[in-house]
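Re: beginner question about structure tokens

> Can someone show what the tokenized structure looks like for a real chain? I only ever see the sequence side.

Sure, here's an example I had lying around. Input first:
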Amino acid sequence: MTTAQARQDLAVQPTPLALLLLGREADTRSERGVECPGDLPSPSDPDLVARARAAKEKLGEKVFVLGHHYQRDEVIQFADVTGDSFKLARDAAARPGAEYIVFCGVHFMAESADILTGDEQKVVLPDLAAGCSMADMATAEQVAECWDVLTDAGIAERVVPVSYMNSSADIKAFTGKHGGTICTSSNAERALNWAFEQGEQVLFLPDQHLGRNTAVRDLGLSLEDCVLYNPHKPNGGLTAEELRNAKMILWRGHCSVHGRFSLDSVNDVRERVPGVNVLVHPECKHEVVSAADYVGSTEYIIKMLEEAPSGSKWAIGTELNLVQRLANRFAADNKEIVFLDKTVCFCSTMNRIDLPHLVWTLESLAEGKEINRIQVEKETADFAQLALERMLALP
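And the corresponding structure tokens:
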């Protein structure tokens, strides 16, 4: 008896959540996606590089491949440009002649590219299941409920939402609709300064650590000025008085990669590597950021290492693919670059974009098959673009 027959005999139907986790259904308000149709090339196929190169050459200027810094080298080698999520979305918008934008990143990044590119351009994600755990931690329904809580507390009219770029199109649209702006890890300070000029309080989505670190380190607020809103608790686990007294209402979300680093990681690497400079991303926990020597975005980390003197030692607190690539790049300059923690820490969802998926994508497009297109509904895209435009206009 097959599994399907047994299920039918028992009158058991898989739940929507079970289908979602199995990759057999899609939730349009979630970062999780569905499995790719068709057969992927075998990862052991020795001709994958040649196949990818041939398909890309056949497509010519019709295709523009974007590679996020956290991608593995086997994918990065085919990227026309590399960068962080917002830089790549802007690079895509600057190539209106490209019919296909192949985004080697995760779902929210491809959404942003779709919002910023022309209607005639098609944004493709090689694996629709390449999502973002942080973005998944704030759904449209949860944020709408949070706004109701703020309204009941009598403070919604003085709260300005600021959403990190690492959020779904729905969250960006909510932000735009309620007078807020988007930020990146590079311009979070400017975004918060702007927000406090518009209102008295900020709702920061969805990464609590970037919000807290920026508020305390850059704006000079105290930890007591920040409260943590937990969407899984009634009223966010906060009283109306706590909400009214807060300057920063932080969403309970975090990056699964950067959230792994601890104060012990910092102390341990200082013992193992005397004279090391600790350089971390602001998505790390506050105690890690406080103990580090330098803190900054992915682009900041790369720039710091480019300008570092020969013979210097660095422990980097960010995604491992990037750290390994930087270590290899600067080895000839006698710069010692190590991963901050002893535990391997790849971004598991970013790593879903591998060479077989890229080959399948490029070959499908070369054969005229449009696959895995990311399209944001117009009203959502319009409000999300409004929030992005406010970010671009930041002083």
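Each token stands for a local structural state, so reading them left to right follows the chain. The mean pLDDT is 89.
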